[in-house]
Amino acid sequence: MEKKQLKKRNVTLVFGGLLLAIPVFTANGQDRVAQPGTFDPLTETAHQKGASEPENTASSTAEPIPNAAVKIPGRIIVPSTTVARPEDIGFRAHTNYLVFVPQSIGARANLATGNNLAPAASITPDTTFAENPGSLGCIYQVGPAYLGCTPSNGAGHHPLGGSGAIAIVDAYNNPDAASDLSTFDSYWGIPAANFTQVYCLPSHGSCETSNTPPANDKGWALEEALDIEYAHAMAPYAKIFLVEAASSSNDDLTWANIWAAYYVDISGGGEVSNSWGSAEFSTESSYDSIFNNYNGEYYPVVYFASGGDQGTVEYPSASPYVVSAGGTTVNRDSSGNYLSQSCWSGTGHGPSVYEPIPSYQSSAGIAGTKRSTTDLSFDADPSSGASVYDAFNGGWFTVGGTSLASPALAGIVNNAGNFFSSTFQENTLLYSEYLGRKTYGADFYDVSPARYDTCTGIGTPKTLIGK
Description:
Blueprint: H1 3-15, H2 27-33, E1 38-39, H3 46-49, E2 74-78, E3 94-95, E4 98-102, H4 106-109, H5 133-139, E5 165-171, H6 177-188, E6 195-200, E7 207-208, H7 218-234, E8 239-245, H8 250-265, E9 270-274, E10 276-279, E11 301-306, E12 314-315, E13 323-332, E14 338-343, E15 350-356, H9 359-362, E16 370-373, E17 376-379, E18 386-390, E19 395-400, H10 402-416, H11 423-435, H12 437-443, E20 444-445, E21 460-461
Parallel strand pairs: 5-8, 5-9, 6-8, 9-11, 11-13, 13-17
Antiparallel strand pairs: 1-2, 2-4, 3-10, 4-19, 6-7, 10-12, 13-14, 15-16, 18-19, 20-21
Helix pairs in contact: 6-7, 7-10
């Protein structure tokens, strides 16, 4: 299938004359309006307090943290690209990651503002508390099991498997993406990635490896490093495509999704992950067809979107045609042994304002008339965040947010190998597992006592079965 033919067909199928007049901003333009990154006060985080969240369905609050759980003192850097601005709603997206800085290096972290994340970087990853491919693979039982699933013993215990492709859609350019992934793989002993970086032109131009890259952006660069590294970590033998949109406008990012689906299609099927979002807007449903582009002619593509880090519902997480990725806190004892998970209070979750409830939720008994986010969850609390390597910003970081959950869950679903024809079918499987009394407990962690809650969805993966 020729690219021009597919591109023309997708434009007709997906946009159908709907192309929105959304302004395109350069990276420099973004920098001019960006506010400095901020620190949360040096106080207990939600991870340390075990705070619970009210839910929109007939559900209980998140599982309380055991008394033996370690409290990690530190601060959270909110990158300027993660700040949600009212003027961006409906026009432009933000990233969904946060950087955690332990109190032990707090003096250096005090220097970090805006996109200047370098003072929070380390030469080597912190294995005393930060998660890694081995520890996360052990927790979710998608990699080798070992005693305590401790971060300190994670090296070499990463998951294996994966096939087809996972495409990551982000904005702007990380000039070190390929070398970042290579460094990450080498450190953790992961097989080298089959990696391709694709550059999208603005105004609905092509997305090709031969195009001029978009403008560099440090805030989005760390997002991209996080996304490609943990998608690859959960499915090392899947091809990884990084599709870089020309800007963070909704128009450019959703256009990049069309091309991402194309690259997944020609690789035999797989997943597309979106770790960005914005507050819901009244015309959001006009974009839904982009995430529901299966018409019987292509290999299967399943879409994922992070729930958000603002505690409220975001789009495209609210689309019924994505797997909405929620967030948990990983709780450990003083020796680093895994204890449990609980709702991460920063997770964007709840009922959509605009999207009706899909059949896979209503048939599972989820309350209400609107689409409920989230569907499935993964570690996202920055204070139980994961080690990410990003040379553009200075080295190793501990990164959390639902930006970690979306690509990691995409990798796990890829590794499970079901390759459903659409996201709707993938979500139908997940919710049917939720209803299966015998299979649910074996295949998923029930983070909420009520089984479903909007913060963590049906729970988190436990094994590759039923994904």
